[in-house]
Structure formats: C-alpha cells, structure tokens
Amino acid sequence: MALRTEDIRSIAVVAHGGAGKTSLTEAMLFDAGAVTRLGTIEAGNTTSDFSSEEQKRTISISTSLLNFDHRGKKVFVLDVPGYADFIGEMRSALRVAGSAVMVVSATDGVEVQTDKAWEFAKEFETSTIFFINKMDRENADYNGVFEQIRADLTKNAYRLLLPVGKEAGFKGVVDILKDRAYIYDDASGKFKEGDIPADMVTDAHRARGYLVEAIVEDSDELMLRYLDGEDIPVDELIPVLRQCIAKCKIFPVMPGSATANIGVPQLMDLIVNYLPDPTAMRERPAVKEDREIFIKADPQAPFSALCFKVMVDPYVGKLSFIRVNSGTLTSDQTIYNVNRQEEERISSFKIMQGKDGVDVKEITTGMIVAIPKLTSTRVGDTLGKAGSKVLYPTIKFPTPVYSVAVDAQSRGDEDKLGNAVHRMLEEDLTLRFEKNPETNDNVLSGMGNLHLDIALAKIKERYGVNLNTRTPNVPYRETIRKSAKAQGKHKKQTGGHGQYGDVYIEFSPLERGAGFEFEDKIVGGAIPKQYIPAVEKGLRECMVKGVLAAYPTVDFKASLYFGSYHDVDSSEMAFKTAAHLAFKKGMTEASPVLLEPIMNVEVMVADTYLGDVMGDFNTRRGRIMGVDSLGRLQVVKAQVPQSEMFQYAIQLRSMTSGRGTFTMEFSHYDTVPEEVSKKIIAARQGLLAEEEE
C-alpha cells in the first residue's frame, strides 16, 4: 500500500564529529525493529557506516539514507557525517530533510560543527530537536549544555524532557508536558512509566512553566486563558506546540544516551508526534519561466523532486537520491530532468536501509528514495514530469580549501585516471579536479586532508588507479617594476638567403591584472607591416617563460618603436627571433620581480584560539584585514600567500583541537618579498637544471 504524505517524517541527524549521531540512528533502527542487531561504531557493523573506509576509520564519511516505522508513521533518516571535511554532505542533507535531530554531547557541549549545522538549519528553516547525548558519561551537564544552546544558538530552545539521574546514575527521562517519568529497567531492558520523582517535581514544573508560556504565545485564545490563571490541558497545548515547532518558534531539547538506549524511544515519539509532516512544512521556493514560485507539498500536484546525492558503485552502478517535493510517480513512467531537458527511464525506486534497498512501485510527496541508473541526472538537478518547467535552486556547496597534486604511477593508471575522477566528481561536489595550465599539475582539491585521503583511497579501491601525491607547485608569475628599452638584432649569413631582423622595444609595467599589451609605434616603414605580427608573436612566446625563473611574465606593455630590415634576408622567423633577444635583454633591465597568488582567508574560531590564529598568520606573511564577531565565535579575515596555505587545513585543526574552520579563495597577485624570492628562484633554477640534464 502506498504511503500517505501525512504519515511521513524526514529528518537529518547532524552533529559535530564524535557526538554520537550514528549510534543514535542505530539505536532508533533497533528500537523500531528495523534491524535485529544493535551495531556499534567500534565493531564496524552499524547500518549507516557501511563502506570499507568508514569501517576502517570508525567515522561517517557519506550521508546514509535509513528508514523505520514508528507508531504508524514512516520516518526517513539521513545520517550525516559530522567532520568538517564532509561539510557538503551536511548542507545537502539539511537542504532536503525539512526537520533535524541535532545531537550535542553532554560533556563537550556546542562545538564548531554544531554551529555550522545550526547555520544551515536556520538558512533552510529546519524544524529541529536538540538531543543532548552521552548523559551517562562523567561530567555530563544537561542544564549547562541547554543554557549554552540558548546562549550560542537560539533563545527559542526549550526543555521538553529532563534527565533522571546523572553520569553513571542516569536512568531515565521526565516528560514535563505530560508530567510523566520513564525509568529504564536494566533487568527487562525496557522503560517503566510512572510519576515524576519527588525530588524533581519543582524543577519539572518550573521548566514546564517556561515551555507553556512559549506555546501559548502562538495562540491568542490560549494566551488569554493562561493570563486568566487557567491551567491549559495538555491535549490543547500539543497541537499548538506542533505548530510552533513547524514554524521554528520552538526547538525542543531532551536528554539521552544512545549507547545505553535511554531516551531514544522518547525521541522517536517526539519525531512522529511533534515534527511536521511534509504538508505542514514551509512551501519550497522554485523558479518557473524566470518567475519565482512556491511549491506546496501536495501529492495530487504535478510531480517534482530534487536530486541531492549521487552514489556510484563500480558493481551496482549509479544511484540518484531524491526528495519528492510534490506529486506522485510510479515506476512504469519516465522522469524528466528539467536542468538537462532530457527524459530518463526508471527501472525502480528504492527505499534505502544503508547499503540495501527495497523496491517500491510508487513514490509520493515527502519520500526520500534512490533511483538506479539515471544517466544524466546530477546533484542539484530538478526532476519532474515531461515538459515541466519548475526548477528548484541548485545546492550551493562550499569552496575547497585543501589541494594536492596527483601523478599517475604508471601509464595504465594515467589512462584510467580521467574516468575515475569523473565518477568521483559525480558523487562529491565539494571535490575539484583541474589541470593547472601554468604549472602543468593535476590538482585535486577538497575540504581537508582527510577528505582527499578518502577520495584517493576510493579511486584506488574502486577503479584500480594508483596515484602519488605531492604539494602543488605555486603558479608564480613574473613582471617588471620600471621601463627599459632594448634592441634585439638577429643577423645570420649562411651562404644563400640569410636571416635579418632588427627591433627596438620599450618595456613598461602595467597595473596588476592588466595582462599584456603590444603597441606598434613604427613610422616611416622602418619595419614592413607584414613583419609586425611576428614581433608580437615572438614576445608572446617569450612571455611563457620569464627571465627570472621561467615563470609566465604578465602585466607589461611592449612598444615596438624602431627597427630595420633587409629586402632579401628578412623574414617572419627572423623578426620573431629578434623579439626574443629584445625580450630577454629588456626584461632583465626592467627590474623584474616575482609575483605570487594571494588568498582571501576567513577563519572561524572560538575566542580561546583567536590569539593563536592571528599570531600564526603573521608567521605566514599574512595580513589581518579584520575580525568580526559571530555569536561566541570570531571570524578572522586575512590575506595570505597561497604558498603558505597548502597545509593550513591540517595545521588549523591541530592549533584549535579540531574546533576551527576556514574558507579560502583567490584574491590577487602581489610581489614576493626579496628574501623569499631569492629562495624560490634558486630552487626553481636548480629544478630546471635537473630537467635539462
């Protein structure tokens, strides 16, 4: 029987790495009877972390799609990686889920990736439950972390459940709205419902008062009755609470322990009872024929969906993961890719449980499923019925911040590299691969060294491509600081026709980024018109390798103002050669300097690490452009030479105990300091000498 949209819930489970979100998803699957064995991270047998790399490293690398049934509802779960290197997975999952469970460690509190997850959740207006995990650990502090959530993330967080006991004595939870306690029984492995412990009644009623005040603010009728002193019945509060959660006016907070399975059943109840079904969520913005529209979650409306993930398996093939935003579709129909304007044939739909899938014949609004073997569909594409013009905004991914140059170990590896990388880029849009035309490096870029290590491991495991990695060469350039005039005269007599070309050229500096200008100032026919292009061509050939260290020369003007020719011996080749001679002489006399790429860098860290980060930039020849406050975090803006940033992702992680994140993009080229320049030139000349031998 097909699912009803009203019976669907979809959540992204997000957290800072190590907070316990995969353990939580595993516990929910187990409690729902979706799996018969409670897997653990340490044993490498959880449902969501199924790849060999995830099992080897004991971390989540890629978003997994899971599902379970609870109290007559179908819950689709996206288990999202929590490490900064996989931030793209978090962004795409929160874009489609609509609701989230944000797992926060009771011992570590709000961390950097918690901040990032919350930033995305706010952007996408995501209804969110905060699950404060690891309440059975030493130094667990439920109220302290709750206050931190309110201070650093949102004032609209309210405790819906309280912990019974703490640390090793944590044994249950109290539902403050229903005035009931749920105590875990070690003997039976189940919860026993009962009255609130006497020593918790005062705290529970105080917390309930704060929650009820927040709820009645969304209902004029309830507010008036509340102000008149009436005790509003629970069955009247709950529908309004649902509305508040759907509108992101209230974010419930609850305690638990995923590994001890305490609080997990209550979380599952919150998900199905309080989080919105697709019809209660905000309408999805889209564009139709250059006009902004909003798509309502209606199973009777025309079909539309967004592809948010692609998984390529060398044996199974390609799986495209989609979230159905409107309409219904059966597997005997075709699907239309609106971005590519191509029809795709459907073989089946799969409801995924980690790596395994169950085929279904029909999908409807709110479902998150995988479709095998869609050939043209990419991440961010909109799918619909034939002829559809509805386009959802594509998913914006962060810019890569860490790069390595990759070299194939053999000719066979080189032949397979292109296909392997193409497949990887289909899956992961936070990866970039390009051939740098200036350095001739194949550069693979991503969100950090862990990200690239795993990408390279996948390339080897899946496609049998062995690669060596190294630090990319910096695309230095050369330019000049003053004007200089030079003659280039090429004269050669070989018995028959000789070679003769004679040019006078003035070389002048241009502003940064201007490139190259050639000016013909010949008057009186000193050089015939047909030879002028050869002079420019000769200069352009020389620009590829400058006079200092054979780096490209930029930002200068060459003015050809005089010369001479021979009626018989002059030729295009002779004038090209003369231009070469003038270039080498003129550039050497025009005060040549090296230029290096400068990057705009933004680092987000807590106050604790601000001094370390700023001091570190000074050692990297960086220039601090400003510091902005973002809640409890500081955003340091700086301009830093690219050569100083290749290992920064690793070094920042070490400097901030994994709590710092950064973005980086190219800004401009600037002059390399003389002492640094000498070292670069010496190293470059040594390398060139080795290549000539």
From TrEMBL:
Which GO MF terms are attached to this record? GTP binding; GTPase activity; translation elongation factor activity
Query: Which key words are in the record?
Result: Elongation factor, GTP-binding, Nucleotide-binding, Protein biosynthesis
Q: Domain Tr-type G, which positions? A: 6-279
GO biological processes: ribosome disassembly
Matching entries from InterPro entries are given as: EF-G-like_DII, EFG_II, EFG_III, EFG_III/V, EFG_IV, EFG_V, EFG_V-like, P-loop_NTPase
Pfam families xrefs: EF-G_D2, EFG_C, EFG_III, EFG_IV, GTP_EFTU
The record's comment on protein family reads: Belongs to the TRAFAC class translation factor GTPase superfamily. Classic translation factor GTPase family. EF-G/EF-2 subfamily.
**PANTHER family noted in UniProt:** ELONGATION FACTOR G-LIKE PROTEIN, TRANSLATION ELONGATION FACTOR G-RELATED
Name of the protein in its database record: Elongation factor G
Q: Which organism is it from?
A: Jonquetella anthropi DSM 22815
